[in-house]
């Protein structure tokens, strides 16, 4: 068992979102407790040796979040969120991407190391309504909790808000050898943390809730359940927690300050387990934790909170004693080799509200902002120039890679940042140094994962190139997307309103 138990959130408290004027606090639910929804596992269409075939369908649906009216929602093979997709390392995966929505979408595999920009599924890979597109790739990375979400710039935030997000789990032989709970839905639980506001007739109204610094709602919605409880029938439970909110940070802790142990971060298993009583996640980050309910007895309740708002009640039932001990060392993560000639690249995230930018520019899908050779390691220094007072923590995310975190303002990264990551919260005034190596060629986006910041232009893109196999890419353009969105919504292109556009217009910039 890990010796040290950390007791703080590590991040700079002054920048917690509670300090910002537009912040929408979570409210304590007065609704009846309901069993936590567990997303079903997506069944393969067919398996043929090492080849597996799936169909992922983006669809409209209705969800019973509250009593009375159902809420109109979107999801993947489900009315809201999605069925969980499981890949095995080394598997050759074929996916039909089917769009049954009334508007275009893309299927972005957040955290998956696949070629860009089409397989990766960012804004260059639209699937129009009624279309089915095919991708295939080999799973080439360790066991991890990843996710799938929509990414049609500048409407990513609205589509995710409607429900387009699902878990993607990678399994491998190393993970299988470790003493982790892994009975899906029983003691291995995916947990997506989101928040919503319910308007008239229990509907979402994204435009009404719009805030260029990120849309929030007062109601916590966990796996699509409002005020959930979970029946604990094993002493140890593994939670695969994803901050799937558009903008909210979650500051997690249990009643009685019950300690828990993090075993994995975004890109997979940590080299060593890290114990704490408090854990903060910024948008799109994942943490797999093991909670030991050993000191509780049948009938007890343990509550998971964010700040002082209860999120889930764990109802303790009889369980068999489980005295498995985690090893002090979990996996070896081969260090990315650098030397004195390793280049240092600088990325600056600046502004708030409509002014957000990367390197003083807003995103342009036709512009490649940087290039890096596949297989070569570079340092990336990511700076957040917001002021400590009133500034925001920007969760910085990169497509196409799992990076190493070298330092925060020259100091050691947080204790749970020694594994591979694809998203990292950068405090105001801070520079986080990463080691980045692309394994696959392509054009990949990097951006703030407050999704409204991303749609508002706090995003750039890099070409990872292989000099032996030069490629040219067909990049999507805003005109094509605007026309398609306009047609689908039955308006003239000049009358089309997508929230992210406001950030460009207010700055007098063209998308
Ligand atoms: Cu979670 Cu650009 O993505
Ligand atoms: Cu991503
Ligand atoms: Cu941001």
Number of helical runs?
6
Bound molecules: CU-O-CU linkage, copper (II) ion
Q: What's the number of extended β-strand segments? A: 34
Radius of gyration: 22 Å
Per DSSP, what share of the residues sits in E-state strands of 2 or more residues? Answer: 35-45%
Mean pLDDT reading = 96
Distance between the termini: 52 Å
Helix content: under 10%
Protein structure class: mainly beta
Main sheet: strands, sense, barrel: 8 strands, mixed
Which stretches of 5+ consecutive residues score pLDDT under 50? none
The strand line-up of the biggest sheet is: 1-20-19-22-17-13-14-15
Quick recap:
With 511 residues, this protein is mainly beta. It contains six helices and 34 strands.
Structure write-up:
The model has no long low-confidence stretch (mean pLDDT 96). This protein has helices spanning 156-162, 173-177, 206-209, 451-455, 478-489, 499-506; strands at residues 5-6, 34-35, 46-48, 51-63, 71-76, 81-82, 85-88, 92-99, 108-110, 132-138, 144-149, 165-171, 188-196, 219-222, 225-226, 228-232, 236-243, 250-254, 260-265, 268-276, 279-281, 286-292, 301-306, 309-316, 344-350, 357-358, 370-373, 377-384, 394-398, 404-408, 423-426, 431-437, 442-448, 459-465. The protein is globular. Strands 1-20-19-22-17-13-14-15 form an eight-stranded mixed β-sheet, with no helix packed on it. It has a six-stranded mixed β-sheet with strand order 2-16-24-23-18-21, with no helix packed on it. With 511 residues, it is mainly beta. 8% of the residues lie in helices and 37% in strands. A hairpin with a 7-residue loop joins strand 4 (51-63) and strand 5. The structure holds CU-O-CU linkage (C2O) and copper (II) ion (2 copies).
């Amino acid at each position: 068992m890990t010796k040290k138990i950390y007791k703080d959130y590590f991040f700079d408290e002054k920048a917690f979102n509670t300090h910002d004027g537009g912040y929408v606090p979570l409210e304590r639910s007065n609704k009846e407790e309901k069993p936590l929804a567990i997303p079903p596992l997506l069944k393969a269409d067919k398996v043929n040796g090492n080849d597996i075939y799936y169909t992922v369908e983006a669809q409209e649906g209705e969800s019973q979040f509250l009593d009375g009216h159902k809420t109109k929602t979107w999801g993947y093979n489900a009315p809201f969120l999605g069925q969980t997709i499981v890949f095995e390392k080394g598997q050759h995966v074929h996916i039909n991407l089917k769009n049954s929505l009334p508007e275009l979408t893309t299927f972005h595999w957040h955290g998956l190391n696949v070629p860009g920009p089409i397989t990766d599924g960012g804004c260059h890979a639209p699937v129009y309504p009624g279309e089915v597109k095919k991708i295939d790739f080999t799973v080439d990375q360790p066991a991890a909790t990843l996710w799938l979400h929509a990414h049609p710039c500048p409407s990513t935030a609205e589509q995710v808000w409607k429900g387009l997000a699902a878990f993607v789990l990678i399994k491998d032989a190393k993970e299988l050898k470790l003493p982790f709970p892994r009975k899906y839905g029983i003691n291995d639980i995916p947990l997506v943390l989101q928040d919503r506001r319910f308007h008239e007739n229990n509907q979402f109204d994204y435009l009404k809730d719009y805030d260029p610094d990120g849309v929030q709602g007062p109601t916590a919605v966990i796996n699509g359940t409002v005020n959930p409880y979970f029946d604990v029938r094993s002493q140890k439970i593994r939670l695969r927690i994803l901050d799937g909110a558009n903008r909210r940070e979650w500051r997690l802790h249990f009643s009685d300050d019950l300690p828990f142990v993090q075993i994995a971060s975004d890109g997979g298993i940590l080299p060593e387990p890290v114990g704490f009583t408090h854990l903060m996640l910024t948008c799109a980050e994942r943490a797999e934790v093991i909670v030991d309910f050993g000191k509780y007895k049948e009938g007890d309740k343990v509550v998971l909170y964010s700040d002082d708002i209860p999120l889930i009640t764990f109802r303790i039932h009889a369980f068999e004693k489980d005295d498995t001990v985690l090893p002090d060392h979990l996996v070896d993560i081969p260090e990315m080799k650098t030397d004195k000639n390793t280049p240092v690249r600088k990325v600056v995230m600046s502004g708030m509200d409509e002014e957000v930018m990367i390197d003083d520019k807003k995103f342009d899908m036709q512009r490649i902002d940087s290039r890096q050779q596949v297989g070569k390691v570079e340092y990336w220094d990511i700076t957040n120039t917001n002021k400590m007072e009133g500034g925001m923590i920007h969760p910085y995310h990169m497509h196409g890679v799992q990076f190493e975190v070298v330092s925060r303002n020259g100091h050691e990264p947080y204790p749970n940042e020694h594994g591979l990551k694809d998203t990292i919260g950068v405090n105001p005034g801070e520079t986080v140094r990463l080691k980045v190596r692309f394994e696959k060629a392509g054009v990949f986006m990097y951006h703030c994962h407050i999704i409204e910041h991303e749609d508002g232009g706090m995003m750039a893109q890099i070409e990872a190139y292989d000099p032996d196999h030069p490629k040219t890419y067909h990049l999507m353009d805003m005109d094509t997307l605007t026309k398609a969105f306009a047609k689908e919504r039955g308006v003239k292109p000049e009358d089309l309103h997508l929230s992210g556009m406001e950030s460009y217009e207010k700055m007098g910039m063209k998308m």
